[in-house]
Amino acid sequence: MARSRWTSLTKSMAEQQPSRGTAAFLSRDFRLYQMARVMVIIGAEAQALAVAWQVYQITHSALALGYTGLALFLPGVLLILPSGHVADRYDRRQVVLVCYSLQMFCTAGLFWFAWRGLHSVWPIYAVLALIGTGRSFSGPASSALVPHLVPKEHFVNAVTWGSTIFQAANIAGPAIGGILFTLPLHERIRGASAVFLFTFMTLIGYLVLISMLSVRPGRMEKRATSIDVVLAGFHYVWRRKILLGSISLDLFAVLLGGSVALLPIYAQDILHAGPRGLGILRAAPALGALIISISMAFRPIRRRAGKKMFVGVALFGLGTIVFGLSRSIPLSVLALMLVGGSDMISVVIRSSLLQLATPPEMRGRVSAVNSLFLGASNELGEFESGLTAQWWGAVRAVVIGGIGSLVVTGLWSIFFPSLRRADTLTAESLMATDSGPTRERESIEQPIA
């Protein structure tokens, strides 16, 4: 009797205690999933560096660099509705496996182009569009899969560690890519082809680890397919202003302030650093984000989450301006570290908001909406940066974009007071803070006749 009472008491204390430290790693599936992510992100970042350098060497055009982002983004726009619906209707783990199998095929194509010494960028854009197609389905499925990997009380800790691991891989990926690009290997397996071969092997490792997950999240959406069911993610985000504000804030701030697409220009023409310098510059934002995310894992955000998100986005814009004006590699690296570290604050808060303020059966469709906004801020942001750099030059494009991010931060703090008031990262607190009435959420969750 005493033992039963003590077990009940300790279980209650564990549920009430905020997750901290490495609590998420108690889950075997979470460990396997993060090991897989490390491999595939390192490979993807190395591949992105090789593609960017290859495209710029072929074209010497900022606009051509921008088209790489556009090729990745457009499939997400066209497939946003079916991708979210697929993530809620089918086993999310199986969806991820199919999508990354497609990415293996695409990486093999990029390797073949490099092996043959291709001097046209259009086949590269076609392969990037296929990669974007895979991402449009894997993104919502992967995001909606995470809550199944850990207990509810460890979810914010899992999000923080997931972001930490993502940034660590983002540091290693460009660095490995830059080194592989310059190593004197085989006569024809060198430069971009060596990087693509490495990425292909990381994709194999990813598929093996994901197939080992024991979690089997089956069909979450039980209703028959209809337009209302497919569009439910848009309706939900529009009515929950705290979600709409956080997603759109990230969209416009990063869309305007994105400078990653122009790093090859800075590395070659402004800072004169070469491929290895490009690897350092691409890794710098991830290094800053890694420092912040490790700090947040052990000192999680407890109060005033909304205000801290706005501060993070403002610092993101400030760091972008400093980078745009810099002519020194050390200063540029520090500015990019500020960009990555400040962005990490908003990433953790936005990711937590997205999952905690969304019912489990709708997470795939809501995540698809988020993936569209995220893709617009990243890939479409690369196109915007390339286009404005073509018009104004790289330096002016980056600086004006940073100023635009600061303006957006100020306006969104006025337009979305519920996001500004967001306090603790719990489902109950977020639902209470949101300006949307509770009956709207209930109407969405009711089965459609």
Account of the 3D structure:
The protein has helices spanning 2-16, 28-59, 62-78, 80-89, 92-115, 122-145, 155-182, 192-211, 227-230, 232-239, 241-257, 263-270, 274-298, 305-325, 329-356, 363-392, 394-415, 417-421, 427-433, 438-445. With 449 residues, the chain is an all-alpha fold. Helix 14 runs antiparallel to helix 17 (394-415). The relative contact order is 0.16.
Structural class: mainly alpha
Q: Which residues form runs of ≥5 with pLDDT under 50?
A: 1-19, 221-226, 435-449
The overall strand count is 0
Order of helices and strands: HHHHHHHHHHHHHHHHHHHH
Shape: globular
Taking the alpha carbons of the first and last residues, their distance comes to: 49 Å
Task: Compute the CA-based radius of gyration.
Answer: 22 Å
Q: How much of the residues is beta strand, in percent? A: under 5%
Largest sheet: none
**Helical amount among residues, as a percent range?**
over 70%
Brief account:
The protein has helices at residues 2-16, 28-59, 62-78, 80-89, 92-115, 122-145, 155-182, 192-211, 227-230, 232-239, 241-257, 263-270, 274-298, 305-325, 329-356, 363-392, 394-415, 417-421, 427-433, 438-445. With 449 residues, it is mostly helical.
